[in-house]
Every structure is written in structure tokens, then in C-alpha cells.
Design brief:
281 residues, three-stranded antiparallel β-sheet, 8% strand, 5 helices, mainly alpha
Length: 281
């Protein structure tokens, strides 16, 4: 019985026309059919290519001789092998089971949570310990810098004080040496002036004979009192010229009034003078 045609198709449309029209109306079905044909062709080609690559050893051939041909046997044509279907995808798990599995994967294990928490606590304690140690080191460095600065300032002040004291001591010493040098110079000058007066007095009182020639020198030892007055004068070292030495000795013995120094204190504890009287004509 022929299938009834849709009411909108013309009655005289052939079967091929109907297939084309049906394919136009359902393009997805035609594409799926074409894809299935291509897949089967490829599958058969794969089987044939795989069989052709197999290496088989030739089997021995046996032949039987017949006097007459056996009656023909009607052979039934073997149907072509059915196309192998692609393995179906495993069925998806149920929605509830999939959610439970996802929840199990999403929820971490309690042991992992405890281990992670312990690790975080240890890392926190380690960071706090490192921060505390860094703070202590920084504090020690600051204290050391402060102490070094204080010591440097104290050392600088000590050096300044030492330099000041040394300068003051040097100044005092220099002033004392200057005073001592001035006093010694004044004393030497006073003694030189006083001995010069005594030598001039002796030279003026001595009656040197004309027979004395040259420049004989006689040494006279003069002893003084506390006020600087001469109470004794003697020849300490003769010149070698007897006439000159006798004349000088007579002059010393004839002096009754010796000169007095202008400042007896300037002579200090010096109680003896040595005079070198040189003959000059």
C-alpha cells in the first residue's frame, strides 16, 4: 500500500522528488546519513588495509583427482558483514551521585585541614620569632651606635681637656722658665757688674811695674758676707809673672773699702767669686 502524501505536495510527484524534498526539509538528517556512510567506508578500508598487512606463511596445497566432476552445489551468497557499531559512551552517573562525588572532592580531609593549620601556626611562630630577633638586633645596633657616639664624644672631650691642660701647663712652664731665665740673666748681670767693679778697683790700686810685658792673667778668689760685702780676697791662681802677681796682691791687701752690690739679694747664696784680672797697658 502506498504511503499517503502530504496534502501540500502535488499528487504526481515521484518518489525521488519526494526524497529530495524531504532531504531539503530535514538537512540534519541528510548530513548524519552522509557522515555514517563515510565512517563505514573508512572502517571497511581500515579492515582491508589491516588484513593486507598481515604476513601469513603459505600452507601446503593438496589436490585430489576426480574422474568426474561433482555435482554443482548451490551456494548461498554470504551476506556482507554488518557494520560494527561504535562503542557507546559509558552512561553518565546520576545527578545525585555526581554531586556527592564532587562534594567529596571539594571537601578537604580533616587531617589535611589540621596539618595545614599546624603548618600555618608554625610559619606564624617562625615569622614572629624572626621579627623579634630582627627587632632585638636592631635595638642592639642602635644601642651600640649610641654608646659608640657617647664614647667618641667623651674621647673627643677628654682629648680637648688634655690638650687644654697641656697647653696651660706648657704656658706655665714657659712662663716659669722665662722668669727663671730672666732672674738668672739679671743675677748674672748683677754678678758681672759687681765683679767688674771689684776687678776695676784692684786694677786701679795695683802699681804694675813697667817691666811687665804681655797680657798676664791672674785669678783672684773673693769671699763675700751675707750682705755682699767683701771680707777676704786672695790670689787663687798666679799668672806666672811674679812682678805682676806681687803688684796685684799688694793692691788687694791695701783695699779697706770694697764696693757693695746694688741688690745683695740678687746674689742669692753665692758667697764666693772668682775674678780673672788681665793686665792691659
Amino acid at each position: 500500500m502506498a504511503a499517503a502524501l502530504p496534502p501540500h505536495l502535488p499528487p504526481k510527484l515521484s518518489a525521488t522528488g519526494r526524497s529530495v524534498l524531504h532531504a531539503r526539509r530535514e538537512p540534519g538528517r541528510a548530513i548524519a546519513g552522509a557522515f555514517a556512510i563515510v565512517v563505514h567506508i573508512g572502517f571497511f578500508a581500515l579492515i582491508i588495509f589491516g588484513v593486507s598487512w598481515q604476513v601469513k606463511m603459505p600452507s601446503p596445497i593438496s589436490a585430489e583427482l576426480w574422474s568426474t566432476l561433482p555435482p554443482a552445489v548451490n551456494r548461498v551468497a554470504e551476506p556482507p558483514p554488518a557494520p560494527q557499531e561504535e562503542p557507546a559512551a559509558p552512561p553518565e552517573p546520576k545527578v545525585a551521585e555526581r554531586k556527592v562525588a564532587e562534594q567529596k572532592v571539594a571537601e578537604p580531609n580533616k587531617a589535611d585541614i589540621a596539618l595545614k593549620a599546624k603548618k600555618e601556626r608554625e610559619e606564624k611562630l617562625k615569622r614572629e620569632k624572626e621579627e623579634k630577633l630582627a627587632a632585638e638586633l636592631k635595638k642592639r645596633d642602635e644601642q651600640k651606635r649610641t654608646e659608640d657616639k657617647r664614647k667618641a664624644e667623651e674621647d673627643k672631650q677628654r682629648k680637648a681637656d688634655d690638650a687644654k691642660r697641656k697647653a696651660e701647663a706648657d704656658k706655665v712652664r714657659q712662663e716659669a722658665e722665662a722668669r727663671a731665665a730672666a732672674a738668672q740673666s739679671a743675677r748674672d748681670k748683677a754678678v758681672s757688674d759687681y765683679t767688674g767693679k771689684i776687678a776695676a778697683l784692684i786694677r786701679n790700686r795695683a802699681n804694675i811695674p813697667d817691666s811687665v810685658t804681655g797680657q798676664p792673667i791672674i785669678q783672684v778668689r773673693v769671699r763675700l758676707l751675707t750682705n755682699g760685702t767683701v771680707f777676704e780676697a786672695t790670689v787663687g791662681n798666679p799668672s806666672g809673672n811674679k812682678a805682676y802677681d806681687d803688684a796685684v796682691e799688694r793692691a788687694i791687701n791695701g783695699i779697706r773699702q770694697w764696693p757693695v752690690p746694688d741688690d745683695p739679694e740678687i746674689l742669692g747664696r753665692q758667697r764666693e767669686l772668682l775674678l780673672n784680672i788681665k793686665h792691659e797697658r
